[in-house]
């Protein structure tokens, strides 16, 4: 069962010339159009994003009843554990879960400021890779 190569005179492989490539490219169909959102959908998406940004910035601190306090603290724990940055979710979420129930209104407002910060910056500051800005250094949380 010994196989011999009878095609010893075959030409070695070479890339096609640029003329051959351009002629085959010219005959290929154009790429499909890039999908775009209809103007109404784009406006709705932008409006939803803007609304969520405004809601995050306008979080009210209502400690008038046990129920409103419980809801606020649950929201803060959720925001600290579901940031989309696993390491930060674990570190910040655990800390907030352990401390948020003993916080007064000024500390809750300070925590809200921290939760509004960008994930990469917050992670660098918490791990000591960079020094936080002075106004953040004075934050009691």
UniProtKB/TrEMBL annotation:
This is Succinate dehydrogenase assembly factor 2, mitochondrial. Residues 1-39 are annotated as: Disordered. The keyword Calcium does not apply. GO terms for cellular component: mitochondrion. One of its GO terms (biological process) is mitochondrial electron transport, succinate to ubiquinone. Residues 15-27 have a biased composition (Low complexity). Keywords: Chaperone, Mitochondrion. The keyword Flavoprotein does not apply.
